[in-house]
Amino acid sequence: MEDRLDSSGQRLAGLLKAQDFDTAQALLRSNLTGRAQSLQDDVLLILFESPPPETAFGSVAEALLRLVPDADGFSALADHLEASGAALAARAAHKCAAELDFDAYPAMDVWGGAFNGQERRQTLFDQLLQELKIVTVVETGTFRGATTDYMAKAGLPVFSCEFHPRYFYYSLLRLANIPNVRLERADSRCFLRELFGENRLPPGPALFYLDAHWERDLPLWEEVDQIFSRHPSPVIMVDDFRVPTDSGFAYDDYGRGKCLSVTNLHEAVTARPAMFFPRYASAHETGARRGCVVLAQGDLADYIRRKLPMLTELSLVDALILDRVAELHNDLNAVSEELQQTRAKSEAENAKRDAAAAREAATGLPNLVLRLHEELRLGRTERLGLQQQVAELQHSRWRRIGLLLGLARKATFER
Question: Which one of 78, 154, 192, 199 has the fewest beta carbons within 10 angstroms of its own beta carbon?
Fold first, then answer.
């Protein structure tokens, strides 16, 4: 198999270098069928139009030959092409992955639906739109478009961005027939900068839903500062945020300075908005039960205080104290869990040692039994010998007594 692959890879690399599209297509078509075959043709065509550096032909050829004909396979191919310097072909491969995703799941709900499948969060969003007279919605982090789809049902303009190409192209297909959605592939910070710089948002209060954070990058703090510094009447809802008053809400923590918390928000953001958290308990929420915070200033903050009973305000001091307490609680839980793991490890090691001792004892048991048996046998022999000696002594004693009695009788008769 490896020999065949190496040989085919070298041949395909030569075809890429020679710009022989037809022969390369025929070679690759022997590996795939149906929809995957036509999608691979699309990638190959872009690859010939915009090839990678010549030094990457070999690895690209082998990646094409190893292609698994499903969405994940095309996504892996896209990553390989991106790393090899074939950016346009990588984009085409991401599109192929998205099309296969959409063919299989035209309404994919990875997190359980809109707003992570959280019904009370959905109600909160609806109330914010209604009570604050929101005129437009801006979302960072489209992902698979489930929340975007829900937001669009209000009929307001929805501006959304997604940086990951596979998710972007999938959402582009999913939301294609919703006219009030404007979807862009962009880093969220650049996306907001362009919205404000080009004055693309209609005048009036805007609701910003921030969900572009992920492990490798955390644009959240810059997003918040941009919004409060450049929009006259914003309201921000941040997903995956730590709720200081309810540890039952889950949140994102990507390490030092990257925990979505009041403490890090205060340290990283220049703006000092009012902070509102869910008044309802996490136990009464549905879906993934992710935490959130709503940030607002001025009149919009006053409206929230008076008209949004689902939210409760925390002052900055109270929020920081409660957040520190929550962080300490998490640290204690982490220490407790570490101690439990250490104890479990110690118990496991003790059990391992006990088992080894038991095996050793079990191995020596037959020898012990044999030794005891031998000792018992020797002890029985010694006892039998002693009994024999006693019997002999007793026998000789009676013989002497008998002789004495016989001599005494003989002397009597002789008198």
Answer: 199
CB atoms within 10 A of CB 349: 10
CA 323 to chain centre: 24
Closest CA to 77 of 165, 141, 163: 165
For residues 276 and 259, is the Cβ–Cβ distance under 8 A?
no
Give CA torsion, residues 131, 132, 133, 137, to 10 deg.
-120
The residue count for the chain? 415
Task: Work out the burial of residue 150: count CB atoms within 10 Å of its CB; fewer than 13 is exposed, 13-18 middle, 19 or more buried.
Answer: middle
pLDDT band of residue 364 (cuts 50, 70, 90) is low
Could you please report the per-residue DSSP string of 117-156? G-HHHHHHHHHHHHHTT--EEEEE--TTSHHHHHHHTT-S
25, exposed or middle or buried, with CB in 10 Å at 0-12, 13-18, 19+? middle
> Which strands, in side-by-side order, build the sheet including 181-184?
181-184, 158-161, 136-140, 206-210, 234-239, 292-296, 274-278, 311-314
Contact 248, 281 (CB under 8 A): yes
Q: How far apart are CA 139 and CA 198, in angstroms?
A: 17
What pTM does this model have? 0.80
Question: In the predicted model, what is the mean pLDDT of residues 23-49?
Answer: 90
CB 292 within 8 A of CB 236: no
Spatial contact of 124 and 278, defined as CB atoms under 8 Å apart: yes
Within the chain, what is the greatest distance between any pair of CA atoms? 162
When computed from its CA atoms, the radius of gyration of the chain, rounded to whole angstroms, is 41
pLDDT tens, position by position, 370-383? 666 666 666 655 55
Quick one: tokens of 222?
A: 């810059």
